[in-house]
Amino acid sequence: MTKAELIESVARTVHQPKKTVAQTIEATFQQIAKSIRKEKRFWVPGFGTFSVRRRRARAGFNPRTNTKMTIPSARTVGFRPSPGLKKGL
Description:
single chain, alpha+beta, HU Protein, Chain A, three-stranded antiparallel sheet, 3 helices, elongated
């Protein structure tokens, strides 16, 4: 599902204009991102937890030149679904 499809679906469900729903969804995503940056996690009961994870440096290769290289460590956002969400899959 794309963001546009999400907006359309929610707008139909709550009988609100797409513009209002789009603003609400955008504000929600901004607050989630802000929470992840500040608190390093965001938890939605019954859905799951978004948290900052650290990827270790690892060996790789450059596909253009086919030479070996080291991919540096990085921080990324991970998601762990709640047991209720897993059960519904």
